[in-house]
Amino acid sequence: MSAPRLLDAGEAALIVEFGTTVDPALSDRVLALDEALAADPPQGLRERVPTYRSLMLHYDPLVLDRARLADHVMRLAGNAAERAGAASLWTLPCCYDAPHGEDVAELAGRAGLSPEAVVALHAGATYRVYMYGFAPGFAYLGGLPKDLATPRRASPRPPHPRNAVVVGGGLAAVATVPMPTGWYVVGATPSRLYAPERAESFFVAAGDAIRFEPVDAATFDALTAREASGERVARKGATA
Amino acid sequence: MSALIIEAAGPAITLQDGGRHGYLRYGFTAAGPMDPLMHATANRAAGAPLDAAAIEISTGGVTVAVEGGPVGLALASTGFRIALDGEPLPAAVALTLEPGRSLVVRAGDIGSWGYLAVQGRLDLAPVLGSLATHTRSGVGGLDGRGLAAGDRLPVAEPRAGEVSPHRLIVPWLDRNPETIRVVLGPQDDYFAPDQIAAFLAGPWTVSPRGDRMACFLDGTPLKHAKGHDIVSDGVAMGAIQVPGNGLPIILMADRQSTGGYPKIATVIGPDLGRLAQVRGGTRIAFWAVSVADAVAARRAEAEFLRGPVPREPVVRTDFSSDFLLGLNLVDGVTDGRGWGYDHR
């Protein structure tokens, strides 16, 4: 196991790079260091941002010296090979039917599958939350079945609604905020991975696992109403 | 309760405090001021915490009044045209706005952003602990959007300020925009040495299509040594990414929290505001410094804001008719909405 590389991102951020690829083993090392720093943070460390293969550390250089941060990180990185905390498995309801699964038919055509097979494959997989990025609560998910891996569109489709469940390239995601995208919209979840007014604004952590449980449009509407009233409709644990 | 009333507002006028920190790991960018030094200077001059919410004023301009009682204000800008009921004022000024009077702020020949801070506290509900507006996700400020005519911003604990307008003596805001200091990396190893040299020397022309999310540069495209795709990693404010077309994009306050293009260098904190103030069409180059040099610059900058902001009473001078004619709203400035471009 090689030592991580330290890369400066200006004078107030340091990237601890474990590798350059998407790989669950690299992600485990990133998250192990993330946990170790959460338990033993040097004064002046402001934010930790885990990505697929690196941990970005934002710090106040007037409080925390770069060399001291580097020493601290390398000491913890040497000790923290494994995550101490257990990852959670979340089950998110997902409606693949019209009008939510806007691009299921198109994706099926590209993948040479029936629409039913696309839904069965997507809902049958367990996904790893690698990281958040791009927009608040936008979770990048690994573990997409290979048969659903499809190049993203060359030009973006029109904006999708909130909480769209999307696939693109070899990844899946929950796209919390409406925006144009090159990804394919296969469904929507009534669960809000990001709800700024909720006490726990974000409940899924990097390293957690997600499964999608198919629901019909009427159930989607009912769950959306419950979510809007403050309930969290995502369940911790596997589907029955 | 006293309140600021927005009588007119161009596009991209938002409330910004020091930023919504702690949520980058959830994909949520801090937002906050484009020119952190100028924002903090306005707050210091108003006697407010350095990271308090203030109005960030674009070149679109704004007209402000008060109701309920006088409110002390401090306005920091370089080159903006300011007038109180038609009477010209300096570009950086502290004053007390009385009900029935209007403070007009318009773009001048230089500068892209100005800041209006209040003596008191803007009494709005924070989101995730902050009033910083991030329009792309519709969060912060007033309903997550830019300010518009008719908006009312309640001021808690308002204090009257200077009895007569005072010019703020803030020479640290007069910054040379031509050379921007950077720390190389984090992905400078994606570029050959001659391309690093070409990047630093430029010159680059700042594109007029920039906004709170990014500053786009035009010039001779850079060549990548190892391709232009990387597996996404974190992005700092000031990160200079080089996408496939070889033209650098500098990611600013409303940037995405992660990105998938190599970042050749990162603008140092003390030069973020200097860069943000540059208008489209300006030519710039870069100067590589060490982390230690950048920290020293940061330390020097912090000294400016240690004590009260010096000021002197405004002495009435002649302002040209150009000045007065310039006090109209600028149209057609980007409103900062839309996701712009996708660099996942």
Description:
With 240 residues, chain A is an alpha+beta fold. Helix content of chain A is 25%, strand content 25%. Chain A is built from five helices and twelve strands. In chain A, the strands form two sheets. Chain A has an eight-stranded mixed beta sheet with strand order 10-8-9-7-6-11-5-12. A four-stranded antiparallel beta sheet of chain A has the order 1-2-4-3. In chain A, a hairpin with a 4-residue loop joins strand 1 (5-8) and strand 2. In chain A, helix 3 (104-111) packs across helix 4. The mean pLDDT of chain A is 93. With 344 residues, chain B is α+β, with helices and mostly antiparallel strands. Chain B has helices at 36-45, 193-201, 269-276, 291-304, 321-325; strands spanning 3-9, 14-16, 54-57, 62-67, 71-76, 81-84, 87-89, 93-97, 103-106, 114-118, 121-122, 152-156, 166-168, 179-184, 204-206, 214-218, 233-234, 239-241, 249-251, 258-259, 263-267, 283-288, 311-313. Chain B has a seven-stranded antiparallel beta sheet, with no helix packed on it. A seven-stranded antiparallel beta sheet of chain B has the order 2-3-10-5-8-13-23, covered by helices on one side. In chain B, strands 14-21-18-19-16-15-22 form a seven-stranded mixed barrel. The longest helix of chain B has 14 residues, at 291-304. The N and C termini of chain B lie far apart (46 Å).
Share of helical residues of chain B: 10-25%
Strand order of the largest sheet of chain B: 7-6-9-4-1-12-11
Dominant shape of chain A: elongated
Average the pLDDT over all residues of chain B and give the rounded result.
91
Estimated structural class of chain A = alpha+beta
Uncertain residue segments of chain A: none
Identify the strand order in the major beta sheet of chain A.
10-8-9-7-6-11-5-12
- Supply the helix-strand structural class of chain B: alpha+beta
Average pLDDT level of chain A: 93
Number of helices of chain A: 5
Strand content of chain A: 25-35%
